[in-house]
Every structure is written in C-alpha cells, then in structure tokens.
Amino acid sequence: MLSKRIIPCLDIAEGRVVKGVKFVDIIDAGDPVEAAIRYDEQGADELTFLDIRASHENRDTLYHVVTDVAEHVFMPLTVGGGIKTLEDIERLLHAGADKVSINTAAIHNPDFVRQAAERFGSSTIVVAIDAKRVAGHPPRWECFTHGGRKPTGIDAVAWARRMSDNGAGEILLTSMDADGTRNGYDLALTRAVADSISANVVASGGVGTLQHLADGFTEGHADAVLAASIFHFGEYTIREAKAFLAERGIPVRMSD
Amino acid sequence: MIGLINYGMGNMHSIAKALERAGGRVRWVDRPEQIDASIERIVLPGVGAFRDCMKALKRQHLQEVILEHVQAGRPFLGICLGMQVLMETSHEFGLHEGLGLVEGEVVPFPANFPERGHKIPHMGWNDVLLPDSAHPVLRPLAGRQVYYVHSFFCQPRHDREVLAECEYGGLRFASAIGRDNVIGVQFHPEKSQRAGLAMLESFIGWCP
C-alpha cells in the first residue's frame, strides 16, 4: 500500500539551515548535509530545501548544497526558491534535485509550469502555494508571493486546480496564517485543495505536535506532510512521528 | 565497469553516486564508442517523456549499442522511464515506439483515478510484491518499500516477463519486468535509501 509521506523541510540561506517564524525572525540552525544525514538515518521519506533568500548572487551556493546532500543521502530531494527559468530547473536537476518547487514564477507566467512539466515531466514539477485566509464565509484563501509579502488576489484553491491541470505533479501548500504558530495545519485549506485536484498535496505550516501530522492526513486529506521545527530542534524524531501515525492506522513506511 | 547512459535528461548525478555507493565503477556514456569491452553492464536511467528519451537515444546513436550489448548477453538495468522504453510502444503524448526488448505497451493510470481519491502521479513509497521464486536482483527488496513516481506503467504481453508487482488504487501493475539479462524497474532504487542501494548491489553482482 502507498505510504503517507513525512517530509522534513530545511530552509536554506547562504548555504546554512535557518528557521524563522512567519517568514521573519531568522536564526541559524546548522549544516544542511549534517541535517540531511540525520533525517536519512531517522527514515525521512523525502527532503525539501527552500532557499529563502533566493538571491541571484547566492545561486551557486545552493547548487553546491544540493550536490553535497545528493552525494550523502539517497532519497528524493525537492528544492525551491527563486526558480524563474527552465535553465534554473535544469541546473538544479543536474545538481541532484529530483523535484523543483516553483512559486512566484508560476504566478507571473502560469504557462511556465506547463512548459516545465512538458520538458522535465510532471513528477519533477512542484508548485508551491503560500495561502492566507480571507475574512468571510464560506472560507476562502488568497495566494501570496515573494515569501509571503505580496498579495496576488488569486484564489488559492482555483490556482491549485489550474496548476495541477497545467502539469504540476505536486502542490506544496503552506498556510501563512498557520506557519510558525505551532497550532496545526489549516486543515480546511488543505482539504479544500486536496479534494479538488489530481496532483499530490503536501500540507505545510503550523505543526507543533505529532497529532497535527496525523490531522494533516485524516482531516486534511494530504498525501504528505511537511514540518520543520518539530524535527529540526530534536523535539521528535521522524521515527517517533511514524510510530505515532502507525498506531493511528495511517500507512507509513517503517524504515529499514 | 557500469556504462551509465546519459541522454541529457534527469538526475544522472544521483544514480552515478548510488551505483558507486553500492560498489560499482561508473562511466558516463553519451557516445556509442564509450561502450567498449570494459563495459560489463549498462544502466539506463530516465526522467522526462518517453518520446524525448527515444529521440535522444537515436540522435546520440546509442540505441544500436544498447541493443548489441543486450544481444551479447550482458546485464542491463532500466530505471523508471529507462524501464518503459524497453517496451514496444508507449501511449505517452501520442503513440511512440520503444526499444522493443519486451513485448507490450506503456499505458497511463486510469483518468478517473483522482475522482476516486488516488492521485496522479503515483508518488511515494510503495511495495515490491515478489513471487516465491524472486528474481535475484530483486530479492533484497522482499518486505521493503521503494520510491515510485510515475503516471504511466508497463503492460508486458507475457506474464512471465512481470518480475514483481505493485498495487495502487486497486490496480496491480508491473513494478519490475525483464527477461534473460534484461531487467527494468518502475521505482527509483537510487532514491530508495538502503533498500535501493541493496538492489543496486545485487544488480552489480548479477551474472545472468
């Protein structure tokens, strides 16, 4: 049976792992290769790296990090942040990424995702959506870009559907309201997207407990759950998280 | 020496590193003359579209040398798309001809899968269901999960050429196919942590 995936996320800036709250208050949290090896040993199902600075000058640093990590761990690696062109994607894949995560560039040019999927395959293309709740009923969410700073006026659920139709194999869905709060995923958002598209959905933003991971699957209908700080600062290991999910009947891969 | 076919698509770096970690020596092959007598086995990786892969193999004149290598009885491993191109035809973006080493075709997951709650692509860790007398290369995978990511799968004409299966959305499809000295796997051993490295190690030691 297909296992539900647990994906630790590493935010990268200038070649280091960093962690912020609500996209600000960044602190240094270590060496990416060491972190990747630790997660590999704990049985993580994939790793996601997000270059939160994504400035052009630091591009080579990111490629080196990806190459370095890919030499040490043999699991799927997703890399995102600042991807603008097909050449950016090609370079990341050559560096050792298996999937790339596109956000702002997709909003600027929705056809970019179609071109990327046609050239590199749907399984390679992830569209990252940073969504924020809009006041009112029924609930609605709006897409933001530039690390959550710029509103776009685009409805997040409709956008996810469009990106899935354009060939994205996966949607990395971050609730900006939940991110950094440790109060759990925005489950209504996650479910609204997961139930309306054919692409895989990775829930992101807000995890503070193992129950939140379980909720992402059972209530949010996500295919994978992403978390950063609960794993990064050693509160829980991936193994503990999987044991917790398995006890609740959620199919997970117990690593060997 | 392992000849790793490089047709300019996909994540060659990871496969090369995984093969080395599993104990192999790797030569990247993008021209036919690089497949000489020192190449004992060939690995054909694959990410991207079927049509582009076959086009590239033809353009780089690699199709003939791959077929010669196989006909000489030397071990061949195709991974993901590298497995799919072993078939006669694929229905990905039109109808396209493959290497034809295994009779049958490549078909998509049913279009109604998402409505029934099964996402496309089939992405993530899933089983390798082996028969009692498992193929020697696949034996280390008994009871373990490996990483899949694909929207199409192989349908060999002959059941005996299905070496392992996987189940997704109530559908059983070929997880591994092959005959004689040829094997293809739908999953990514180079992305399947210890299980995948164990399989690559057994491919490196395989003498069909």
Determine and state the CATH class of chain B. Alpha Beta
Question: Helix and strand string of chain B, N-terminal first?
Answer: EHEEHHEHEEEEEEEEEH
Strand element count of chain A: 12
Oligomer: heterodimer
Task: Walk me through what this model shows.
- The complex is a heterodimer of chains A (256) and B (208).
- Chain A is 36% helix and 28% strand.
- The longest helix of chain A has 14 residues.
- Chain A has 256 residues and is an alpha/beta fold.
- Chain A is globular and about 40 Å long.
- Chain A has an eight-stranded parallel barrel, surrounded by eight helices.
- Chain A contains ten helices and twelve strands.
- In chain B, strand 5 and strand 6 form a beta hairpin.
- Chains A and B meet through helix 2, helix 3 and helix 5 of A and helix 1, strand 8, strand 9 and helix 5 of B.
Short description:
Chain A is an alpha/beta fold and 256 residues long. Chain A is built from ten helices and twelve strands.
Topology record:
The complex is a heterodimer of chains A (256) and B (208).
Chain A: E1 5-13, E2 16-21, E3 24-30, H1 32-42, E4 47-51, H2 59-72, E5 77-80, H3 86-95, E6 99-102, H4 104-108, H5 111-120, E7 125-134, E8 140-145, E9 150-155, H6 156-165, E10 170-175, H7 187-194, E11 200-204, H8 210-218, E12 224-227, H9 229-232, H10 238-247
Parallel strand pairs in A: 1-4, 1-12, 4-5, 5-6, 6-7, 7-10, 10-11, 11-12
Antiparallel strand pairs in A: 1-2, 2-3, 7-8, 8-9
Helix pairs in contact in A: 1-2
Chain B: E1 2-5, H1 12-21, E2 26-29, E3 41-44, H2 50-59, H3 62-71, E4 76-79, H4 81-84, E5 87-90, E6 96-97, E7 102-108, E8 122-127, E9 145-150, E10 152-156, E11 162-168, E12 171-179, E13 182-185, H5 193-204
Parallel strand pairs in B: 1-2, 1-3, 3-4, 4-13, 5-7
Antiparallel strand pairs in B: 5-6, 7-10, 8-9, 11-12, 12-13
